[in-house]
From TrEMBL:
Residues 9-206 form the Phosphoribosyltransferase domain. Signal peptide: none annotated. Its EC number is 2.4.2.9. Keywords: Allosteric enzyme, Glycosyltransferase, GTP-binding, Nucleotide-binding, Transferase. Pathway: Pyrimidine metabolism; UMP biosynthesis via salvage pathway; UMP from uracil: step 1/1. Pfam families: UPRTase (PF14681). GO terms for molecular function: GTP binding; uracil phosphoribosyltransferase activity. SUPFAM superfamilies: PRTase-like (SSF53271). Belongs to the UPRTase family. CDD domains: PRTases_typeI (cd06223). This is uracil phosphoribosyltransferase.
Length: 221
């Protein structure tokens, strides 16, 4: 599955070493937050590699005139509340002028289905490319709900890139099968999804993400 052209699993040594730290059950909350942000930055960097650039002529350095480059796209960042906020700062470091499109979704603890509680997308599409920020893809239900919200808004699946720290094989497959044109950039994919919907071995203990970020159950989406 991870060999699918739209699923990009990182093999970068820095991502792998940070992810190893995040799996430890006794990792201090500060280190956990910093690790999530660091991995997010690296994944967003990789996801941006093939964005187009346009020339900006007639610029002036202290020494001489030059032609620079810019990204000629409207960038959108869509964190899934509230787990996606863990990646929002990393994304804004890369794209400080991006439009932020918050989507409120949480996963019902019994049915494991995604439930929408907040959406304030503008009436018109305001982005050419949107980075959907969902740190954990467990069942894939929350990511799928967010993708449906964004495509109903007017985006094409090819205009959306998912940034995720960790996913289960089942969850990532569910997302990829329903939205094959959406690119997924992810730190790692674990084989096991437990009956309670937790990724195994996952990040720290089963509820580390919720505890260390004080998040709702959507953190294990």
């Amino acid at each position: 599955m991870s060999n699918a052209p739209k699923i990009n699993v990182s093999s970068h040594p820095l991502v792998l070493s940070k992810l190893t730290q995040l799996r430890l059950h006794d990792l201090p909350a500060k280190d956990f937050r910093e690790g999530i942000r660091a991995i997010g930055s690296m994944l967003i960097y990789e996801a941006s590699r093939h964005l187009p650039v346009a020339d900006v002529p007639n610029l002036q350095s202290p020494v001489a005139p030059f032609t620079g480059q810019t990204i000629p796209l409207r960038i959108g960042l869509s964190p899934i509340l509230r787990a996606g906020l863990a990646l929002e700062d990393a994304a804004l470091d890369m794209f400080p002028e991006a439009t932020v499109l918050h989507l409120g979704l949480f996963r019902d603890k019994v049915s494991l289905q995604a439930i929408e509680y907040y959406s304030k997308l503008p009436s018109q599409v305001t982005a050419d490319i949107v980075f959907l920020l969902d740190p954990l893809i467990a069942t894939g239900g929350t990511a799928l709900a967010a993708l449906n919200m964004l495509t109903e808004w007017g985006l094409k699946p090819s205009q959306i890139k998912i940034i995720s720290v960790l996913g289960s094989k089942q969850g990532v497959s569910n997302v990829s099968e329903e939205f094959p044109d959406v690119e997924i950039y992810i730190g790692a994919i674990d084989d096991v999804l437990t009956e309670k919907g937790y990724i195994s071995p996952g990040l720290g203990d089963a509820v580390s993400f919720s505890v260390k970020y004080h998040l709702c159950s959507g953190a294990t989406s």
